[in-house]
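Form 12-C: Joint structure prediction
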Amino acid sequence: MFSVSPESESSTSRPFLTWQRIIDWAQDHYRTRTFNKDDKIPVRPGLLYLVQRGSVRLVSAQISASTKTPSLVARLSANTDPDNLSPDESFLGFVGAGQPFEIVSQSPFTISSYAHVDKTTVLWMYWHDLDNWPHFRREVMEAFRYQNQRKLLWLGTMGQRRTIDRLLGFLTLLIEEYGEVCEQGYYLPWTLTHAQIGSAIGSTRVTVTRLMGKLRSKGLIITLDDNLICLPPSNPDS
Amino acid sequence: MFSVSPESESSTSRPFLTWQRIIDWAQDHYRTRTFNKDDKIPVRPGLLYLVQRGSVRLVSAQISASTKTPSLVARLSANTDPDNLSPDESFLGFVGAGQPFEIVSQSPFTISSYAHVDKTTVLWMYWHDLDNWPHFRREVMEAFRYQNQRKLLWLGTMGQRRTIDRLLGFLTLLIEEYGEVCEQGYYLPWTLTHAQIGSAIGSTRVTVTRLMGKLRSKGLIITLDDNLICLPPSNPDS
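Section 2 - Result
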């Protein structure tokens, strides 16, 4: 589950050890559901979710000033931008097959989840359901520990001042974690719109499009036929 | 340990349940050390660190192109900026008393830790040392789970396009987690330089100074006598 090797071909290549038993349990208890691309996955705080197949996209939305708990941030962020369909949503990352996620709703932000690809299957349970599987519970906690480490690296990328550095760091981290092998190197097996990338790195769709062109012309990224993003193997001479 | 209540006055107010036994064990085994403000804390991947007292500052540094594993990102990021003493370091957050941390060193970034205040005491152990304290192990893992949740919110803040939104979101999250009560609201009990704040939100010292002035003039933040940052209680009417 902690492998960052991009060699894995199958979307279920990082299973929990007791995965099959969990899947059976979830089916028996009607705790599993399959979503189409960009369907919103209904989630509640306090529950644990597991991606069985496909990929989940986490986004953060600011609570608007009209809701019950208006925040300082929301007050300042009323301006929207026409470049982006969901100007207040930030892309926060993927949850791949075999990985857990959970939603918190405190503070000025709410986190939502969407199926990022068709046939994304998610199952869910209460934390106390894990009492039946102490070993599995430990794996879930190890997965959160790993996710925490990855987010530290991501925050490191986000602190860079130049947007092009944030962009390349962002793509590098995603492909390092989820990339699969192709002829030209490693590629992210899912598409991301330039608006989604912009929302992750604090930039706009237009700027992302321009900088992606720049990275392509420097040979630092390659765009595959189906619009997937590929990183060439890093060159030890440079 | 998961309380976000800013009521706690003492720096050791969020102890692990078995905290005293751990401290005794660390002293018996010479696994504890106290640092002065801004001392670098030597850390190695694979070990678990616990903050007994004070506060630890995590920063991310890009591996320069001259090291063994040059990265794509490092190649693009050779430019430095005179505004910032450590232009390649990003502030990644605090680890408060009672909280664990660990260091990963894969990918283009390395993470380092510094004592953020004088008399910061850190103890360390191997993960297998935790086999002696299964309950404590569980608390450590819960702490990482919590940290992961906080980082999701932080990433949500970082995705905002306007620097002033990132700045206010950043301060709000920090004070929500570490803030203490004062007459004017809640304040962050440690100083942060404008360069450090800039490194966290992908901006410059100069811009942070300007935007802090703007937030102050709008009454959204207050600067206390000793240069500590304070947020007034949020106003439910706005």
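Section 3 - Comments
Chain A has one domain: 19-231. The first strand of chain A starts at residue 32 and ends at 35.
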